[in-house]
């Protein structure tokens, strides 16, 4: 087999593959063996007729069509490996010449990964953060546990900080138009929690059950919904109930009620241990993320636009799904952001997509360079661990699907590559 390559651009390749009789003999025989299993030929049991007899007794047009399909599927990957290209798209195929089972020439146009230039990542050092847990961190968890176990008693008095009020509220802009997303019904709001914009909760301190209030507030300039950031909104609020919140006392009985412990000291020790694990996990993830960013900045990668487009579509699909779970449409979200879909893609999604694709390519390149692999045994162990997390048999069977196994394999290889990079970065 002979392969010629042309590169119209740095991310496109045109391969011309020429195969002679010796290259395609086995492919032809393989196809004939498939025909032999089904062909009914007088004097022979199914699958037992010689291949030369089978060839004379099957439709030649069908034979040639199936041969060409099988030949391209077999020879194209070999040709791509021979000329050392990494395809990232489905190939466009054109048969240029075919003398039945003697000569085959075909042309393949395919998008490829461009050149990747890595820095000397083995010499790039970075300090790993050791997470610490303060007494304040532990007290914050205990406070949350108190709030979760608190009793709420309806009272007929003015609301004060620490109370919970049940409210209906709506907001209007300066044009007296209703603002979607600035309203709610039977909303439980803890006064003093600072969950609403500055000034909102303070306006409700002193309000009594059944009382209606109206006030105007200015949203912070850095507010998450860009359409509201810095704008003035007039709120109409009705306080339907005032609930006194009685938190449980932090004693040994409380400790025993919230965890597998007997004393407050044991509870604090247990919380500190869990916080240490969680904070260290986050610190390690941030360390790895920053390390990859450092390597990415010093790398050069020619990325085919198709990879960016595919990543953008995946990210937009994930975002739409997340919005649906929150009971919101993409249109409503974009209105809150004050952007069109194209503006949002160009400003928010595409830059992230480019970073993700580039980082993925670089990690793949490093794993190849380091000759890192995931053994079948390692994959099976991970699959069994994941299956152990599900009670539903259908969810377990999902993990055995080829696409999910490939995704898990890819994730494991990334983890192994990150571990190798972390080892280089933190070595003495």
Description:
49% of the residues lie in helices and 19% in strands. By secondary structure, the protein is of the alpha+beta class. Strand 3 and strand 4 form a beta hairpin. It folds into three domains: 2-112, Alpha-Beta Plaits (2-Layer Sandwich); 151-246, Chitinase A, domain 3 (Roll), CATH 3.10.50; 280-426, Orthogonal Bundle (Trigger factor, domain 2). The protein contains 13 helices and eleven strands. The model has no long low-confidence stretch (mean pLDDT 92). The strands form three sheets. Strands 6, 7, 8, 9 and 10 form a five-stranded antiparallel β-sheet that branches. The chain is elongated, with a radius of gyration of 32 Å.
Basic shape: elongated
Average predicted confidence as pLDDT: 92
Taken together, the total number of domains comes to 3
Treating each run of at least 4 consecutive H or I residues as one helix, how many helices?
13
As for the CATH topology of the largest domain, it is Trigger factor, domain 2
């Amino acid at each position: 087999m002979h392969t010629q390559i042309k590169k119209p651009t740095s991310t496109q390749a045109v391969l011309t593959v020429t195969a002679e009789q010796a290259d395609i003999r086995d492919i032809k025989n393989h196809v004939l063996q498939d025909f032999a299993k089904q062909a009914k030929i007088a004097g022979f049991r199914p699958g037992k007729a010689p291949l030369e007899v089978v060839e004379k007794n099957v439709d030649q047009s069908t034979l040639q069509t199936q041969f060409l399909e099988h030949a391209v599927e077999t020879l194209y990957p070999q040709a791509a490996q021979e000329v050392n290209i990494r395809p990232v798209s489905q190939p466009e195929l054109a048969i240029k010449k075919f003398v039945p089972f003697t000569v085959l020439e075909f042309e393949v146009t395919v998008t490829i990964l461009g050149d990747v230039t890595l820095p000397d990542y083995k010499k790039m050092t970075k300090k790993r953060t050791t997470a610490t847990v303060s007494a304040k961190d532990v007290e914050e968890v205990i406070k949350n546990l108190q709030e979760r176990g608190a009793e709420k008693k309806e009272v007929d008095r003015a609301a004060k900080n620490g109370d919970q009020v049940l409210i209906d509220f709506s907001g209007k802009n300066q044009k007296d138009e209703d603002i979607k997303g600035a309203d709610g019904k039977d909303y439980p709001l803890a006064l003093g929690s600072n969950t609403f914009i500055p000034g909102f909760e303070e306006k409700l301190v002193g309000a009594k059950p059944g009382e209606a209030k109206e006030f105007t507030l200015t949203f912070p300039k850095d507010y998450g919904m860009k359409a509201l950031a810095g704008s003035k909104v007039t709120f109409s609020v009705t306080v339907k109930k005032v609930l006194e919140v009685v938190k449980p006392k932090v004693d040994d009985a409380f400790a025993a009620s919230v965890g597998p412990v007997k004393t407050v000291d044991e509870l604090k020790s247990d919380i500190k241990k869990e916080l240490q694990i969680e904070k260290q996990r986050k610190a390690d993830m941030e360390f790895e993320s920053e390390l990859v960013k450092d390597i990415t900045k010093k790398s050069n990668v020619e990325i085919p636009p198709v990879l960016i487009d595919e990543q953008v579509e995946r990210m937009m699909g994930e975002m739409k799904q997340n919005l649906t779970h929150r009971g919101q449409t993409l249109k409503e979200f974009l209105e809150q952001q004050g952007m069109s879909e194209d503006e949002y893609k160009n400003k928010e999604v595409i830059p992230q997509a480019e970073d993700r694709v580039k980082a993925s390519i670089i990690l793949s390149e490093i794993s190849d360079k380091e000759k890192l692999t995931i053994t079948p045994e390692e994959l099976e162990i991970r699959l069994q661990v994941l299956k152990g997390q599900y009670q539903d048999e259908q969810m377990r069977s999902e993990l055995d699907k080829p696409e999910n196994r490939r995704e898990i394999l890819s994730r494991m290889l990334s983890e192994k590559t990150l571990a190798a990079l972390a080892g280089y970065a933190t070595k003495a």
